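Weekly modeling sync, notes
Attendees: S.R. (lead), two postdocs, one rotation student

Agenda item 3: backlog of single-chain predictions. S.R. asked that every request posted to the team notebook include the full sequence so nobody has to chase files. The rotation student volunteered to paste the first one in as an example of the format we agreed on. Action items at the bottom.

Example entry:
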Amino acid sequence: MEDIPIAVLDGLLLMFTVKTFLFMMIGIVAGMFFGLVPGLSGLSGLGLLLPFAIGQPPEVAFPFLLGMFATTTQTDTIPAVLIGVPGTAAAQATVLDGYPMAKKGEAERALSASYLASILGSIVAAIIFIAFLPVLRPLIDEFAGPEFFMMAMLGLIMAGSLAGTSLLRGLTMAGFGLIISMVGFAPNTGFARFDFDWTYLIDGIPLVPVVLGMFAVPEVIDLLVSRSTIASQQSSSGGRMKGVADAFQNWWLIVKCGTIGTVCGMIPGLGGLVAEWLGYGHAVQSAKDSSQFGKGDVRGVIAPEAATAAQKPGGILPTVAFGIPGNGPMAIMLGVFLIVGLRPGPEMLRENLNITFLMVWVTVAANIIAAILAFGLQRWLVKICYIRATILAPIVLGFMIVGATLATRDFGDVLLFGIFGFLGYIFKHADWPRVPILIGMVLGNLAETYLFITVERYGIEWLWQRPIVLIIVIMIVLSFVVPAYRLYRRKQGEKILSGHTVKDDME
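Predicted structure, as returned to the notebook:
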């Protein structure tokens, strides 16, 4: 493992080369915008910037995209605190205490505490990543076709079972993503499938128009329908240094929530939304006095921000080690691996370990740089929230159309963008999870390829002869059973509570 310290230093030095650092800064500025404007997100930002990363070497493409993605959770706190509207879904828990703090005249205290919590949370995740890697690499060497196929299936099942409130809906959407991934050439035969004699579909459905349509269009439409300014009140002043002191005083809470966020990033199908709520829940449960949570407790801002920031470096680990994206944005990054000519898996932890650590360092550095910029430019950044939606939404929509057409430069990109935008809007307002579709698209081709290799080489015996496969099978079964059991217990509890209520009324 003596190469790990060298790779850690090499990745750090690589980040500070002129072109890499320049592209990372461009990504950071773009990420601050996507986080600041409610309705946009890191996921839609990745889809929008992905075409501009095509053709760049790995040491430029990854910092460019990760610099954007890592910083959305810095500035999404600004609208969450000032107007009670999260800039992205990953700031929903921050609203619970951040907005009450703003109403009490402590907006700058809440924002400053969130910035430092994000920085420290990402540093905790980087430390865990470096410490866990020596244990992980020998395990990766035991992985072959059967294990990678089962990991792909685990990612699909977990994405379906953990997204949204309905197990059936999540699994259905993951299956829909699998069907989409089957369009184009079959990896084992080379024959085209489901192309409907349309040349555009022979190579499969491109990722960029789907991402932009599915995730960005619904948010922009909702923003446009509002026909009003995003913000309606001014922020209060003072309290910046008090927020910094709050973060340092709660350093142990940040470490614990950073660990929670890192684990959420490592487990496929979880991600920032789960990480922030687990972090917030832990802060409430571990507090000696939890009476002020929801009324303006600074710990209710620090905990979810630390957890959300930490899940991003954590999400890199399963992506580079197993080729299994930890969340939706990492599914896009998985596509970037293929675009720049890298293959996630054991090779990334041996031959391209410096690129792996470059990705980790970028997420940490981006949080630090974005926090400094947001701290200094906070007064002006807030003004974006006061641009009328009727002005902002058409501009963003125009950029998205241009980004979608850069995928293959075919009119089919625009058509797919519109189709999946329509579907995304329906799915969002019908409360059907959309992330499983994306993960199904990305993992579908990998699962099919590994299944073909596995059956050809190992027959059927691999199902019971390989210990890691058996462990993954157990995890898949638990992914079904645990959510279903929790749903059953919750319904039983509701019935009991309802029965008591009716009985009390009769008495």
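Discussion: group reviewed the output briefly. The beta strands are 184-185, 192-193.
Action items: rotation student to repeat for the remaining queue; S.R. to check formatting next week.
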